[in-house]
Write a structure and sequence with these properties.
The complex is a heterodimer of chains A (332) and B (316).
Chain A lengths: L1 H17 L4 H19 L6 H26 L7 H19 L2 H24 L5 H19 L9 H5 L4 E2 L2 E2 H16 L3 H11 L1 H6 L4 H27 L11 H10 L11 H20 L6 H32 L1
Helix pairs in contact in A: 1-9, 2-13, 3-8, 3-11, 3-12, 3-13, 4-5, 4-6, 4-11, 5-6, 5-11, 9-11, 12-13, 12-14, 13-14
Chain B lengths: L3 H26 L6 H26 L7 H16 L6 H24 L5 H20 L9 H8 L1 E2 L2 E2 H19 L1 H11 L1 H6 L4 H27 L10 H11 L11 H20 L5 H26 L1
Antiparallel strand pairs in B: 1-2
Helix pairs in contact in B: 1-12, 2-7, 2-10, 2-11, 2-12, 3-4, 3-5, 3-10, 4-5, 4-10, 6-10, 7-8, 11-12, 11-13
Classes of the chains: A mainly alpha (332), B mainly alpha (316).
Chain lengths: 332, 316
């Protein structure tokens, strides 16, 4: 009995990673439509400079989305990535120039993000507390730490460090290389045992536990990855703005979740992936660009972000109930 | 029900003990702490936290959470100044209109959660950004204007030695406590928070109850926003930002279960006052205000761990 359940859980976990999924296509399609609109509105965006800007403005969101996506696959949510993003830019803006050691302090930022993730994962995995309230609390704690490090928006990062995101190597923008590296990482990661456990946990938590998936260690790993991704995002955000902002992360939680959701990762867990998230992140950046090119107030972007999230969640829910209904019809 | 009472009272009593300890500590370490003017200030700021925590408390009681509170607070504060300016006559339509707009935000939250099946956290996070966007567009990014005199009166005037805001809070405390403890709505709300399915089978209109807590939350946040504008004498974008963590922390300190189904506004009042005292105490002890955020987070974590471990012990 147990063996049967175990096998079905493992195969389900694998199936959802391997099955051809059309949902990432929706995000990339949306991004493409927005890009074409942008180009039609402002033909000169097809320059190398503008495309580099586009990649530079998107890369931090892609990093946030990589971690948030994995958390959402386990049916969780990580609000603390907002705090980690704020704290990371605060550390970068206060320590990079004064100490001169960008690499060492970048590692500190990443370790700090990982530490937040370990705490989240331990509380959620070991004490079985609800993800939203745990990460709301750690979001508050880390936001406080960010404000202690850098009380108000400001500080600076080395010019060379900030410029790195705006230049190209081997004919492609550095930001594009970073995103490519993340996609390569993903295509390796999704074949690992850990990733199969993550999907198994998300599609059927009880079944996964029966099949021998260690729930707590998987959750600690997932939230740690989310913390590290948010910290990496913070480093790219500091490059993009060339300064620090101890509250910036509060406004980036929603875009990160939205990128994941329009990328086709279901809030019900167990399905989705990173490729769609990248498309979703580009779509969100392009919404801002189109709003700008249309000569609309940039405030339309806030409104659009919120509406896009709710519509995407509703669409995801509708698609899911349609699929469930079809599956039920097939059985009967 | 009777069996649950002592436990509930214990956690509420604990909140008041915590408040008392903080007050004593404040009296010892800081000169001028708890002078008569200072008490008024503590109560005023406690009341503002109490207003937002009222709404958050209803939502948490029903097993949800409302992340849209900060921007509803900001929205109400900004609209009261832009709608009325200094001419108090406009208040007669401005205040009801703001309340209706807030109720509409709460209604959308509630409908999204109940009828469209969106999780509370995503729905209220999305609405928060929608409200933010609408406000930014409406104000074009620069809010301002004068706060009408009656609102300033409500927020800062004193009747003898008693702040008007304290009286307003007392009235709300009586209304909310009565509603929660002695009305069918209150009983249904506890039932929904304890176990949605059982409540449904017992004939409770779970959908109506759940939608109504989001409406109550937004209206309470709007009331807080109006009084906050009167208290600080102006309105600005982001004025509601501190109230997300504060509202959840006040409910948590007040002994309510973060997972829903238990808690009382009397406890939340102690939570709000504790945070207000802490807010005043930390700078005098040489801490930066940012330490408060850290305290909020730790308090919420302790509360959620206690609630979760407690409920597991009970089911065992």
């Amino acid at each position: 009995m147990t063996a049967v359940t175990a096998r079905s859980v493992w195969s389900r976990g694998r199936a959802s990673t391997k099955r051809m999924d059309v949902r990432p296509g929706i995000a990339w399609g949306l991004a493409l439509v927005l890009f074409v609109t942008y180009v039609l509105l402002q033909p000169d965006v097809l320059s190398r400079l503008q495309l580099t800007d586009l990649c530079a403005a998107t890369v931090f969101l892609v990093a946030l989305g990589l971690g948030e996506g994995l958390v959402i696959i386990t049916r969780g949510i990580d609000l603390s990535i907002g705090g980690v993003l704020s704290m990371g830019t605060a550390i970068a803006a206060t320590r990079f120039v004064s100490t001169g050691s960008v690499v060492a302090w970048s590692i500190v930022i990443i370790l700090a993000g990982a530490a937040v993730g370990v705490v989240n994962g331990a509380l959620i995995g070991l004490l079985k507390l609800q993800p939203f309230i745990v990460t709301l609390a750690t979001w508050s704690i880390v936001s406080g730490v960010a404000l202690l490090i850098l009380p108000i928006q400001g500080g600076s990062v080395p010019t060379g460090f900030a410029n790195w995101i705006n230049i190209s190597s081997l004919g492609f923008p550095n930001a594009a290389w970073v995103m490519l590296a993340m996609i390569v990482f993903w295509s390796w990661f999704k074949r690992t045992r850990l990733c199969r456990r993550i999907y198994a946990l998300g599609s059927d938590p009880e079944g996964a536990a029966i099949a021998g998936v260690s729930t707590w260690s998987t959750l600690v790993a997932v939230y740690s990855i989310a913390g590290v991704c948010a910290a990496v995002g913070a480093i790219f955000y500091a490059m993009l703005t060339a300064s620090g902002d101890p509250t910036v992360g509060n406004g980036e939680i929603l875009p990160a979740v939205t990128a994941v959701v329009i990328g086709g990762t279901s809030l019900y867990g167990g399905s989705g992936g990173f490729v769609g998230t990248v498309g979703g992140a580009f779509a969100l950046t392009l919404i801002a660009d189109v709003v700008f090119a249309w000569n609309l107030s940039s405030y339309w972007q806030e409104l659009a972000d919120g509406v896009v999230l709710i519509v995407a969640v509703l669409l995801g829910g509708a698609l899911r109930s349609l699929r469930l209904r079809r599956a039920a019809a097939r059985v009967t | 029900m009777n069996l649950a009472l002592p436990r509930r009272h214990r956690s509420i009593a604990l909140a008041y003990v915590l408040l008392l300890v903080l007050v004593v500590v404040g009296r010892i370490v800081a000169i001028g702490f708890l002078g008569i003017d200072h008490i008024d200030e503590l109560i005023d700021e406690g009341a503002l936290i109490g207003f937002v925590a009222l709404g958050q408390g209803f939502v948490i009681l029903a097993g949800g959470v409302d992340l849209s509170i900060p921007w509803v607070v900001t929205g109400a504060g900004i609209l009261i100044t832009t709608f009325t300016g200094t001419s108090s006559g406009n208040l007669f339509w401005a205040v009801p209109l703001i309340m209706v707009l807030a109720a509409a935000v709460g209604l959308v939250n509630g409908v999204g959660v109940v009828f469209l099946g969106v999780t509370p956290i995503i729905m209220t996070l999305g609405m928060s950004t929608v409200v933010e966007g609408v406000l930014l567009l409406y104000t074009n990014g620069s809010a301002g204007g004068n706060v009408p005199e009656p609102v300033v009166y409500l927020s800062t005037h004193k009747w003898g030695e008693v702040p008007v805001m304290a009286v307003a809070w007392l009235v709300l405390i009586v209304i909310v406590t009565f509603t929660l403890s002695f009305t069918p709505f209150g009983r249904r709300l506890y039932a929904v928070g304890l176990n949605r399915r059982v409540a449904l089978f017992s004939g409770v209109d779970v959908k109506l109850v759940t939608v109504s807590v989001y409406v109550i939350s937004s209206c309470a946040a709007a009331f807080a926003g109006i009084t906050l504008a009167g208290y600080v004498g102006q309105s600005y974008l982001g004025m509601g930002d501190p109230y997300l963590f504060t509202s959840v922390a006040a409910v948590a300190i007040g002994g309510a279960s973060i997972l829903g189904g238990s808690g009382n506004y009397i406890g939340t009042v102690a939570g709000a006052m504790t945070l207000s005292v802490l807010n005043a105490l930390l700078p005098t002890l040489g801490f930066q205000p940012a330490v408060l955020d850290i305290v909020y987070g730790i308090v919420i974590l302790i509360a959620v761990a206690a609630a979760s471990l407690g409920s597991r012990a009970r089911t065992r």
